[in-house]
Amino acid sequence: MNGSPRKMFVERQTYRKRRMQDAARFLPVIGLVLFLLPLFWPRGPEDGIAMSVAIEYIFAVWIALVAGALVLSFLIKEEPALEDGGAPEPPRGRND
Amino acid sequence: MQTLNVLIFVCTAYALFLFFVAFVAERAAMRGRGKWLRSSVVYTLSLSIYCTAWTFYGAVGYAARSGFEYVTIYLGPTLVMIGWWWLLRKLVRVGRTQRITSIADLVSSRFGKSNLLAVGVTILAVVGTTPYIALQLQSVTLSFEAFADSLNQQGEAANVSESTALWVAMGLALFTVLFGTRNLDANERHHGVVMAIAVEAVVKLMALLAVGIFVVWGLSGGVGDTLARIDASEIGKWQVDGGRWATLTFLSAAAFLCLPRMFQVMVVENSDEQHLRTASWAFPGYLLLMSLFVVPIAVMGLERLPASSNPDLFVLTLPLSEGQNALAIFSFIGGFSSATSMVIVAALALSTMVSNHIVMPLWLRANVGRASFSGDVRHVVLVARRVSIAGVVFLGYLYYRMSGGGTALAAIGLIAFAGMAQVLPVLMGGLFWRGATRVGALAGLTVGFGLWGYTLFLPSFGEGAFMPRTVLENGLLGFAWLRPQALFGIEGIDPLIHAVFWSLLLNAITFVTVSLASFPSPLERLQGAQFVNALQQTGSARSWSAGTAQTEDLMVMAQRILGASEALQFFRREAARQAGGNARPGKLPDPTPDFLQRLERELSGSVGAATAHAMVAQIVGGASVSVRELLAVADETAQMIEYSDRLKAQSLELSRTAEQLRAANEKLTSLSVQKDAFLSQISHELRTPMTSIRAFSEILRDTADVSREEKQKYSSIIHDESVRLTRLLDDLLDLSVLENGQVNLNLRDGTLREALDKAASAAATGDESPAITILRDPEQESITLHTDFDRLGQVFINLIANARKYCDAEQPELTVLVEHNDLGVQVDFIDNGSGIPSDAQDLIFEKFARVSPQRAGGAGLGLSICRQIMERLGGSIGFLPDTRGAHFRVTLPMVAPEHLAESKPLVTN
Amino acid sequence: MGKRVLVIEDEPNITEAIRFFLSRDGWEVFAHSKGHDALEVIAHRKPDLLILDVMLPGRSGYEILRDLREQPEWTELPVLMLTARGQAKDREMAAEAGASRFMTKPFSNSDILEAVRELAPV
Q1: Which of B787, B904, B792, B907 lies closest to B847 in space, CA to CA?
Q2: Angstrom distances, CA of residue B496 to CA of B246, B404, B470
Q3: pLDDT digits (tens, 9 = 90+) for B739-775
Q4: Which burial class, exposed, middle or buried, applies to B616 when counting CB atoms under 10 A from its CB (0-12, 13-18, 19+)?
Q5: Which chains neighbour A (Cβ–Cβ under 8 Å, 3 or more pairs)?
Q6: pLDDT tens digit string along B114-128?
Q7: B430: closest CA among B41, B36, B91, B803?
Q8: Between chains, do C106 and B691 touch, taking CB under 8 Å as contact?
Q9: Between the CA of residue C17 and those of B696, B839, C6, what are the distances in Å?
Q10: Fewest CB within 10 A of the end CB: N or C in chain B?
Q11: B426 CB burial (10 A radius; 0-12, 13-18, 19+)
Q12: 10 Å Cβ neighbour count for B511?
């Protein structure tokens, strides 16, 4: 009974971490799909979509992706090393 | 003139400023205060060398010509960056742990450190990058000319442009040599260079943003107005070709990974993987800002500037034409920054490849045996680097001069991308597929490179330059399906898409197919496992606190390979050796070079020398490959060994069974032969005395006039032969009983003397054989034995009787020597006769083997029986060929073994 | 003097017996006990009949007979072979080597006498 809540907590954290990693993997895929979407737009000198719309769309997606990557970069965690149980990383060498 | 001079002044000042920045950064790094030099912001900014002068100036030109397509050049890298968790993380990890120095090194390292592959990638990189460097030089020259043009100083312009490219090239070479080869950092990191290009990254972004803001809010009436202008312009409609859109996105993503300069800043110069985390969003953001104002500038340029003006220079000419000289100079500096940073890093990356994979191997080969001093080699490496840098930059300059700086250069950007993208299949395969092999990589790269050259690079020089018109129109050797821009008869595709599609497709197919069909070397497999499993290890290099940690890991690894007990024994032996024989139990040996060498040799017996060396080096060298990963390799090797052992065991089992069958068959055959021979012998031995008996009894019966003496003589012959026959039958029965183990031994205590006394007297009586003097030492013979004295006596009698019969000395003597220890007694019988001929010595213990030519009345079974008896008594009898006379040795235990006495048959035939 | 018979046999008692009843029948009996010099002894004694044992020290009876038959002057010599090994194989080998008659030990004296008389008629 004693250790059980803590155990729950750890598992929950691990679970969250995994899902954040999934999100990081998913982000470029959705980015690719959204970037390739304009292929379905009508094109041509007369009936093509207006350039301003294209610019707004592409940059909007772009900004969204950057924002998504920004958020994820803070949420995502590396798998903790099994040996040291996620202890802080050893100090870096002089070169760094 | 005024502006031009200011421009030259600003330009020189800017260059000096960069030198200063690089110098300060180097100094700070050397003093160990360089933490801020290596922040994630600097890392992100250094990635911006992706945006060269081609993108700074060219993007606007691209947009002015083809509308929105230019943006794909930024979308590819954006996707790669935000997808860092997939790929870049692994790439950077591998690059750091394997101490990779270039993309060529990465490919070579992954595929068993194959230098051939490295050379291939290096050549690819040089071919792909040289025109690109030329492009940068051209852009600087063009922008200079643009200034000159606007000031109507036509006369001077040509002069200026002639020298500009050369001066810029020389300046860049100098900078790169100074800060790129100051020292030979093991990690190939160049703080000064990275800092300088980070500064340049800021400058070029600011410059472009400044021009953009001026255009949108200065010339146009804000965002809304600008968008309206865009829609109204000639590029106001969505006209992008779908195929090109997708292909270019893909191509730019591939180039982002494969371009030597990108690899340099992204992987080689990376000091902390966590920087990737920041760059994952910051760099896409940077790219976004870089491309944000491209369309507005292009539209405004198209609107305001004369139709004859070069859209590639709108960024510069637009402010100039509006009289914003300061902005124009700023813009020029931005373009200058883009060009110089690209040339510097590209030259650095290429020189590393050229010197490491081409110059150094050649130098080492030419100086076999002389490169024994490391300082010597370091010096050579530095010189090679410097010469390579100058060479690469000069090559770019040469290319620029040769091509005449025409518009042909503009297209080279994408062509170079497509060339470097040929490395992509090998790179991906190497990182994610352990089955990828060196031969496969070589084949794939060759096919890809060849097709790229044939379908894109050579035709790009224009008809007739490198590729005859006939080839372009009718295909190589007249085969229509070999037309460079319509392979396999598929026409009407954009040449770029066509080339990228076919070269990468066939490249990948060849790579995979050949990999599947070939078999990797041990080193390749080791490297493959380390690359593919790069992310399964701990985040960073483990620091070895003490020598024992290493030894423990070495031991764990050795156990996996050698087997637990063998490894333990080896380590104990080594510990004992180091401690001079008095090691504490459980103490591990120190990892001395001597010990490591022996361990390596021990391991190499199981996994091959290369793998053993690599494994030991990885653990001891402290390189940041985790032990867990090494163990994975070790496990794999162990499995391989186990498997082959199992196969070996199986085949051994089979051959053993076959051997047993063969032996059994032989035994049966020889048994049958033996039985025949034995029966034949018995027949002979029985029939001979019977012949005499029958013959003489018939004589006595049928002959009337037999004299009394004859009668007497013939009767005694009959009697003697009957006795001989009886004795023979007795012996045969005795032998049969002994051989079948059915004999009942009568074990009791007694002395050896007793046995010898009885035997001597028994052998002396009876026969008419000459008497023999027996020399004995009663003292020695007083040994108490527990054995069957009747059987032992039988043996002694036989030996003494034999000596009496066969000793041919004039005064026959038999010496009996006794020696004993705790285990048993040894009795030697040595006579003074001429001994036994050496060719007969092997036979004397066989049945019916008679050595002596004359008949001695025996059946030839005596020694056979002796041998059987001695076996029953737990001893043995042998003939020693050392002395002149016959020398027999009887050995027997003090106590005859009980279990043998009543045992099953010893001889199972 | 009667005909000459040479007995090559290593068992002295058997030689003694053969000598006894052949000499009584009027034969001049010579004896020899070794195999290796048998051919010389035959050449020396020039017998009208040869009684040859198979198992001889030094050289087997078969070998002696085979060599003997290769010399033209001895191709017709009647040879009676004696063997203590009475297997069919031995009979074949004797015939092959060129024996005129083959007898197994132990033999009956009268059989030997009969065979000798037949082989070398007086």
Answers
A1: B907
A2: 12, 23, 20
A3: 777 777 788 888 888 888 888 887 776 556 667 888 8
A4: buried
A5: B
A6: 778 888 888 888 888
A7: B91
A8: yes
A9: 6, 34, 14
A10: N
A11: buried
A12: 28
Tell whether omega for the bond before C106 is within 30 degrees of 0, i.e. cis: yes
Q: Which residues contact B292 (CB under 8 A, 6 or more apart)?
A: A59, B209, B212
Does residue A96 lie within any of the structural domains? no
Mean pLDDT by 10 residues, chain B (909 residues): 72 85 81 71 87 83 83 90 85 80 83 82 87 83 77 51 73 78 60 85 90 87 82 77 85 89 85 84 90 87 81 84 83 86 85 81 65 53 82 85 62 81 90 86 91 82 64 62 64 78 90 88 73 60 41 73 76 79 65 74 62 66 50 62 72 81 78 74 83 90 86 90 86 80 80 86 69 83 86 87 81 86 85 78 68 53 84 86 81 75 42
Written as one letter, the residue type at B576 is: A
Q: Measured between alpha carbons, how far is B287 from B295 in angstroms, rounded to an integer?
A: 14
> Which tens digit of pLDDT belongs to each residue from B272-312?
888 888 888 889 999 999 888 888 888 888 888 887 777 88
Q: Do A and C make contact, counting contact as 3+ CB pairs within 8 angstroms?
A: no
Give whole-number Cα distances, B472 to B127, B244, B463, B762, in Å: 22, 22, 8, 118
In chain C, where are the structural domains located?
Answer: 4-117
pLDDT (0 to 100) of residue B357: 81
How many domains does the structure of chain A reveal?
Answer: 1
- Diameter of chain A by CA atoms? 73
* Most C CBs within 10 Å, among B686, B687, B713, to test the C interface: B687
Residues of chain B contacting residue A54, judged by C-beta atoms under 8 Å apart: 68, 238
Q: What is C4-117's CATH number, 3.40.50.2300, 2.30.30.40, 3.90.190.20, 3.65.10.10?
A: 3.40.50.2300
Note the pLDDT of residue C51: 93
In a domain, A29, yes or no: yes
Q: What is the mean pLDDT of each run of 10 residues along chain C (122 residues)?
A: 85 90 90 88 90 85 89 89 80 86 89 89 74
Give me the residues paired with residue B774 across strands. Answer: B814
- How high is the pLDDT of residue B510? 93
Q: What is the DSSP code (8-state) at residue B467? A: B
Q: Is A84 within a domain?
A: no
Asked if B85's CB is within 8 angstroms of A69's CB, the reply is no
Residue with tokens 């947009």: B63
CA distances from B54 to B58, B60, B135, C121 (A): 5, 10, 7, 132
Residue of B683, B706, B839 for testing the chain C interface, max C β-carbons within 10 Å:
B683
Query: Do the beta carbons of residue B251 and residue B314 sit within 8 Å?
Result: no
Find, among B103, B408, B53, B447, the residue nearest to B256 by Cα: B103
A71 domain residue, yes or no: yes
Structural domains in chain B, sorted by start = 2-217+248-408 (1.20.1730.10), 422-535 (no CATH), 537-625 (no CATH), 745-901 (3.30.565.10)
Which structural domain range is residue A70 located in? Answer: 4-75
CB within 8 Å of chain B, chain C residues 19-38: 20-21, 24, 34
Collect all residues of chain A within an 8 Å Cβ-Cβ radius of residue B240. 38, 43
**Residue B599, token pair as written in the block:** 């361990």
The span from the CA of B823 to the CA of B505, in Å, is 83
> SS3 of B827, please?
strand
For chain B, the straight-line distance linking the first and the last C-alpha, in angstroms and rounded, comes to 121
- Substitution target in B227, B280, B297 with the highest count of A β-carbons within 10 Å is B280
The nearest alpha carbon in chain B to A55 belongs to B68
CA dihedral B828, B832, B834, B836 (to 10 degrees): -10
